[in-house]
Each structure stands twice: as C-alpha cells, then as structure tokens.
Amino acid sequence: MSTKTQSAPGAASASTDPLALIDVDHVRFWVGNARQAAQFYAHAFGFEVSQLSDLTTGCRDSASFLLTQGNIRLILETPLTTSHPAAEEVRRFGDGVKDVAFTVFDATKAWEQVMRNGGASAYEPRTLTDSRGSVTMAGVQAFGRTVHTFVSRTGGYALPELKQGGVFSPGFATAGDLAVNARNRANPCGLKFVDHCVGNVELGRMNHWVRWYEEVMGFSMFKHFDDKDIATDYSALMSKVMASGNHLIKMPINEPAPGKRKSQIQEYLDWHDNTPGIQHLALRTDDELTSVAELRRRGVDFLNIPEAYYESVWERVNTMLKANGHEMVKEDHQRIRDLGILVDADEEGYLLQLFTKPLQDRPTLFFEIICRRGSRSFGKGNFKALFESLELEQERRGNL
C-alpha cells in the first residue's frame, strides 16, 4: 500500500453540520509546574506568555498559562490540589498534551452530535459568561488520555478578538509586561499555526480510531502509510492521516508495526503507561531556515540527520519537482544542510521539516517545525532518514 490522498469533500456550513471545525482553538498541556514550563516554551520556542489563571485571578484548583505565537495557542495547566484530575495524570504520564480543542459555531450542538454518533463524553457543555461575552466548552473522549474539546465563543471572547490578543475566557487575566515577551518580539521564531497533531495508539488499534474519527467526528482519510513506507532494518510503523471536512484539521494516527526491535511508537507507549496519546505537534512556519536557525540559537535540540542523507536528497527531490512541473527548492541548499533540515517533494510541491528531540525526560512529546511550498504530504521520502536518527536516540536511551 502506498500513500494515497482522498478527494476533498465540500466544506460543510454551520447550518448543516454542527461538526464543522473552524480552527484549532488551543492545545492544553497538563504539566507538573505550569509557571516553569511556560518559561521553557517561551525561552526555547519564542512563545509569548500572554495570560494566566491562578490563585491571583480566583482559580483555586489549578494554575494555567496561555502561550501564544502566530495563531498557536497553548494552555499549560498544573493542578493545585490532589483532587484535580491532572494530578494523577501528571504522576502517570509526566508533562504532555491532554486536549486538542477545536473552535466550532456551537459547542453544545457539536457535543450532542458526537453523542448521537456514538462518542463518549469527557465532560458536558459548560458556559462561562461575564460582561465581555461567553465561552462554551464541551469535551469528548478520544484515544487513550486524549480529549477533544469543542469551543464556541461570543462577544469579546470571539475567535477574531482572541487572535488579536483578546482574553482567552472568563477567569483569565493578562500576564503583564514580562521581559521574555519583549525579547521574543525582538527575536521572533516565526511559528504561525498548528499544521497537524500526531497520535500514537497500540498495535492493532489504528483502524479502530480511524473509524472513530470518520463515524463520530466526521473526518475522512487524507493519506495513509504502511510499514513498507515507514521502516528501517530494525523498526516500522503504520499511519493514517485523518482530516476534518474542510481539511483544516489533520490528525495522523500511528501504530507500531512488527520489527526486529522497538519502534518509536512502542517506546512512546512504554514510557506513557501503555496509554495512547499525542506524540507530537507540527508547527508551521513560512521560513524554515530562519525559524530553525533562531530555535537552534535559543538552544533547542533537534534530531541529528546523517550526512549521507544530503548525498542523495537533491536528486530525489528535484526529479519529483521536475516531473510535476514545479519550481526547484528556492532555499539555499548548503544552508539547509548546515541546519540539518529535511526536504521532501510530492506531486504538489515540496516541504522542509525538522523534529526536536523529546521536550522532557520521558521520550513522549516533541515538536516538528514544518514549512510547506505546495506539498500537502508529511515527508514520506524522509521517513527512513528520520527513523534512523530516532533509532540512534532510542539506542542512547536504552529503548531500541
């Protein structure tokens, strides 16, 4: 089985489809210390620490920090009491993604539609209201620990206002004039929005969750890869990319495939209490070279790409681009090599991508920095080089 792109369905209108998704509203991390985590993501990745909800704003059971960059919104939340559900999950899993939330026109109707479709509730619709407007959230249970929250906004909390720096929801306040924010505005990393979110599930469960996204969430299959596409001599995985009706939201689902040793997916499960969850977030930039150079300057550790990769990549990429009538890669080739960036091409254009090393001690979460020049794929031509690099890191950790 080779990669396959499904035809795009017509965009559904709000009046006919309560599951029409508008945007990735936010990604919520449950972490052991939100204040310290906020400083890490701000200093390393250039996020602005823009708002908070904690004891000072009247929240007694958790502390949350809103981090923003472009149209990316991360909520870092830590429990303040042992009864908060995040307390047990942080103990079991360490820091990680709990919730990939989607903006919709009506969160209650979206949640009700998922219930009719056979989904399970994570929490029922609840609305926070003040003089600015209202925010309604309702959660559905996805794979493992993962939740999808539907979010609908009115008044001063509407999405356009939020994108312009408006308050996230009642109970949040601005974080103040922090020195790290001024430094990041002067030295931007150029990250624009969430390109896709990748989930890892157990062996044999990928197709179950593919059907769940199709039947419960109204997604369709966008691309798929098998162990012939994503394999080395030691390990392999299988992946199917699910996309919302307008292809705005993409959720690749991975499962391990049999190999001589453990795949990165099995390593993730081993260190995530054998529980499925989000493995990585891909963050889009319009300028891969500038973004990666700035992130490296800040001390971000990326996977090391073997020098041999660059001996053959240009012939492969240029052959594909010429065959489909596309312009050649415009970025400086030597600079790409110096920065260790991966390049791939398909029938629609090319992309540049690079993956960080794990963002905490457990090898259960990392970021991908990706720039698309027409390509809508996920770097199939880079899979072998990427896996070889990942396997070197797994071997160093004693997990291969």
How would you describe this protein?
With 400 residues, the protein is α+β, with helices and mostly antiparallel strands. 27% of the residues lie in helices and 32% in strands. The model is unreliable at 1-12 (pLDDT under 50). The strands form 2 sheets. It has a 9-stranded mixed sheet with strand order 6-7-8-5-1-4-3-2-9. It has an 8-stranded mixed sheet with strand order 11-12-13-10-14-17-16-15. The chain has helices at 34-45, 85-93, 107-116, 159-163, 179-186, 206-215, 264-270, 288-297, 309-323, 333-339, 383-397, and strands spanning 23-30, 48-53, 62-69, 72-79, 96-103, 121-130, 133-141, 147-155, 173-174, 191-200, 220-225, 236-243, 250-257, 277-285, 342-346, 349-355, 366-373. The protein has 11 helices and 17 strands. A hairpin with an 8-residue loop joins strand 2 and strand 3 (62-69). The chain folds into 2 domains: 23-186, 2,3-Dihydroxybiphenyl 1,2-Dioxygenase, domain 1; 191-397, 2,3-Dihydroxybiphenyl 1,2-Dioxygenase, domain 1 (Roll). It starts with 22 loop residues before the first strand and ends with a helix.
Briefly summarize what is shown.
With 400 residues, this protein is an alpha+beta fold. It has helices spanning 34-45, 85-93, 107-116, 159-163, 179-186, 206-215, 264-270, 288-297, 309-323, 333-339, 383-397, and strands at residues 23-30, 48-53, 62-69, 72-79, 96-103, 121-130, 133-141, 147-155, 173-174, 191-200, 220-225, 236-243, 250-257, 277-285, 342-346, 349-355, 366-373.
